[in-house]
Q: What sequence folds into this?
């Protein structure tokens, strides 16, 4: 399906927001006290759902089991390398490893999907064999009504399972404690992928690491066989996986590859090995053309009867039917003894034919099987393809570097989770870092980043590292600064024309873009602020000198287009992240304008441009005065809706011709003005520019007290539309919203009750946080 056939960004936001609301589950527990526990609640005021003690206290991360674990899917993969997800009952799902999303949120046909699973066989007079996963959540059997045939993804889901699983997430680590009264071993699965700030190569390894720790809880010695099984992740494009091939890696595992053309999208490989052990290896599963479940039936019989059979992989006879490879490790544990088995899965798919947002035609063919004539390189290649030639090379690298990669990833996790921030704040921050390892993020062979706004189950949504959406993200800039700087160069070097117009959606692969739509005011101005931030983080003055002419061209365009008379506000209609145009100056975009002008003043001074320093500095002061005198209404910053007296007379011309014969909509527009303006409403993004400036270190002349007033107001005000034609949006301010921008601009700490009860206005990139479920929050009164 082509990107043009996909739902729009607006439909995507509406769908995902509805899903998030539907998934909200209230916390169990007793009635909660007000945060202002030391003073009685005002008469008629509603108590807040959390006490001060609860909001401020430290503690371990919460755990999940049963139905509460049904929707967990933690990405295990590299930056721009795709991922496999660890679910809440200790299994793997969602194999998004082919440079596009592939999740289990869609109905499926008859064929099974990819499979990766562990089996434990306890030897002895009364042997026990079980799939090393907790109970299968009932809510997933029919995928909440999406699958009429029931769930048969990998084909192994019906194997006997352990009785209990408790999941805990401390990203980049996920932990599943798996136990059963009939099994004398307790199992702890720790799953991770290298996540090492400032080391983008090792944080971009296409791999998933699973550490199974067995503990003998019984009073007798226990002998066992532990096996891991992986379906062929690179089967090629032929029927019955006939192009797939398997090669044993002696004393390590199995290498899965295929016979596709070297430039084909289907060409690639995967690998399964046991790190630090010498497993018995089944290089190839039983292959049975036509019915994919025969291979798993044969596997179960072998391992459950203790008759695992090794082989050397592919042969010339068995070339059709479902394929895969397995490894088996034997062991014995004395009472109280424990042992850990690290299992490694790697993948490598070097040819990409996805094209979106550029000027060249789309490559035709089925996704995953497209190709150019032999000898012609693909459209683009992922970054990891420049570092490793195939999945076997990736696996051997990870095995060699395993101790170092683990120690450095643990160091990051411990530094993060040793913070004194409350556990739910750490949960929100750390869990959202998983998006860096999800298929939302792609990375080119030259190292450049490129991103979607989010993902559908089978495709990315809303392409091009959209400037006004990625405006909200901060993780790459602070954890992997060189990668963030590639987005600035993409935005200003390849997505801007000679006039300074930035197309806010960049092309994939990198290249020219069309300039046939509005520039995004908040995205383009926010990009200027981010150049300042990235310069400050890097300290690279040479980089700033290289970027300065581009930044100047961009800002000068913004001034010409939206503030042509240098009044200090965005007067002309300006497109923004709400997917509309604001007519007349508003607090949200004008605060970003002020931040961009102030940032430019500092940058001009740093590169020795005195005249620019003076010009942008004076305009920044004019902008601050305009916001304080014209947009601040005594409580907060609002919008002054305007469509008369502008250079853009399009709306004024339309309504000038409206009469009694016009449509109801035309009459409504004439009566109430342009659609979707917020006017004197208190928008939750109303001082987002002040937040950006504060966290980027940009000094602006805006009065801090007025920003404080606006933030206090937003915690108790609903933003109402001024036009009857404007629907309420799920990302507008609500009674329970206080934006993270306000918390920072107010100088409130992360543990401030007002900040802790905030919900961000955007969720696409995940560095804003999702706080207590909507069903458990209550309205903040004006007094609060």
A:
């Amino acid at each position: 399906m082509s990107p043009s056939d996909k739902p729009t960004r607006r439909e995507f936001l509406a769908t995902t927001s509805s899903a998030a609301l539907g998934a909200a589950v209230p916390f169990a527990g007793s009635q909660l006290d007000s945060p202002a526990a030391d003073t009685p609640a005002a008469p008629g005021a509603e108590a807040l759902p959390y006490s001060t003690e609860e909001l401020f206290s430290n503690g371990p991360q919460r755990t999940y089991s049963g139905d509460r674990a049904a929707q967990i899917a933690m990405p295990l993969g590299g930056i721009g390398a795709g991922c496999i997800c660890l679910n809440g009952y200790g299994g793997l799902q969602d194999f998004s490893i082919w440079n596009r999303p592939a999740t289990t949120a869609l109905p499926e046909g008859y064929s099974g999907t990819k499979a990766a699973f562990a089996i434990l066989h306890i030897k002895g007079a009364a042997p026990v064999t079980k799939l090393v996963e907790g109970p299968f959540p009932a809510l997933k059997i029919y995928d909440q009504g999406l699958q009429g045939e029931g769930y048969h993804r990998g084909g192994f889901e019906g194997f006997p399972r352990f009785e209990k699983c408790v999941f805990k997430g401390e990203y980049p680590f996920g932990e599943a404690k798996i136990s059963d009264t009939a099994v004398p071993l307790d199992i702890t699965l720790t799953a991770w992928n290298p996540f090492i700030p400032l080391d983008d190569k090792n944080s971009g390894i296409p791999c998933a690491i699973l550490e199974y720790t067995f503990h003998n809880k019984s009073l007798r010695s226990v002998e066992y066989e532990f096996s891991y099984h992986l379906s062929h992740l690179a089967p090629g494009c032929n029927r019955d996986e006939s192009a797939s091939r398997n090669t044993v890696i002696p004393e390590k595992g199995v290498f899965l590859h295929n016979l596709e053309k070297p430039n084909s999208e289907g060409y690639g490989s995967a690998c399964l090995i046991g790190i630090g052990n010498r497993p018995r290896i089944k290089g190839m599963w039983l292959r049975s053309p036509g019915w994919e479940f025969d291979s798993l039936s044969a596997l179960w019989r072998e391992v459950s009867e203790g008759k695992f059979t090794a082989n050397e992989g592919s042969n010339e006879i068995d070339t059709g039917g479902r394929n895969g490879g397995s490894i088996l490790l034997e062991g014995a544990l004395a009472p109280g003894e424990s042992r850990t088995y690290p299992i490694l899965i790697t993948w490598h798919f070097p040819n990409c034919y996805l094209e979106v947002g550029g000027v060249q035609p789309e490559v035709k063919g089925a996704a995953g099987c497209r190709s150019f004539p032999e000898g012609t390189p693909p459209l683009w290649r992922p970054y990891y393809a420049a570092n490793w030639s195939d999945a076997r090379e990736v696996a051997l690298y990870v095995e060699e570097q395993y101790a170092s990669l683990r120690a450095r990833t643990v160091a990051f996790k411990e530094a993060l989770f040793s913070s004194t921030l409350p556990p739910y704040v750490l949960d929100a921050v750390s869990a959202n870092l998983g998006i860096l390892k999800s298929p939302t993020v792609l990375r080119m062979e030259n190292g450049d980043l490129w991103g979607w706004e989010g993902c559908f189950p089978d495709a990315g949504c809303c392409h091009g590292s959209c400037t006004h959406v990625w405006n909200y993200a901060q993780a790459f800039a602070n954890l992997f600064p060189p990668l963030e700087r590639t987005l600035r160069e993409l935005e200003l070097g390849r997505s801007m024309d000679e006039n300074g117009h930035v197309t806010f959606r960049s092309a994939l692969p990198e290249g020219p873009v069309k300039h046939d739509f509005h520039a995004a005011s908040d995205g383009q101005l926010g990009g200027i602020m981010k150049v300042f931030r990235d310069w400050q983080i890097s300290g690279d003055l040479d980089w700033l000198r290289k970027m300065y002419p581009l930044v100047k061209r961009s800002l000068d365009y913004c001034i010409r287009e939206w503030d042509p008379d240098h009044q200090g506000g965005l007067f002309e209609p300006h497109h923004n992240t709400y997917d509309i145009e604001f007519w007349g100056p508003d607090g949200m975009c004008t605060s970003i304008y002020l931040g961009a002008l102030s940032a430019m003043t500092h940058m001009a001074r740093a590169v020795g441009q005195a005249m620019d320093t003076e010009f942008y500095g004076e305009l920044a002061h004019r902008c601050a005065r305009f916001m304080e005198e014209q947009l601040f209404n005594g409580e907060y910053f609002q919008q002054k809706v305007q469509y008369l007296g502008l250079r853009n007379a399009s709306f004024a011309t339309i309504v000038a011709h409206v009469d009694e014969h016009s449509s109801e909509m035309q009459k409504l527009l004439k009566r109430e003005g342009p659609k979707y303006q917020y006017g004197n409403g208190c928008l939750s993004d109303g001082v987002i520019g002040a937040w950006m400036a504060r966290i980027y270190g940009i000094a602006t002349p805006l009065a801090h007290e007025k920003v404080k007033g606006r933030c206090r107001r937003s915690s108790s005000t609903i933003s109402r539309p001024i036009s009857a034609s404007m629907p309420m949006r799920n990302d507008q301010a609500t009674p329970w919203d206080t934006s993270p921008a306000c918390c920072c601009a107010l100088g409130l700490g992360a543990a401030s009750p007002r900040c802790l009860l905030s919900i961000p206005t955007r969720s696409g990139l995940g560095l804003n946080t999702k706080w207590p479920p909507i069903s458990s929050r209550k309205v903040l009164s004006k007094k609060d």
Summary: The first helix runs from residue 9 to 23. The radius of gyration is 28 Å.
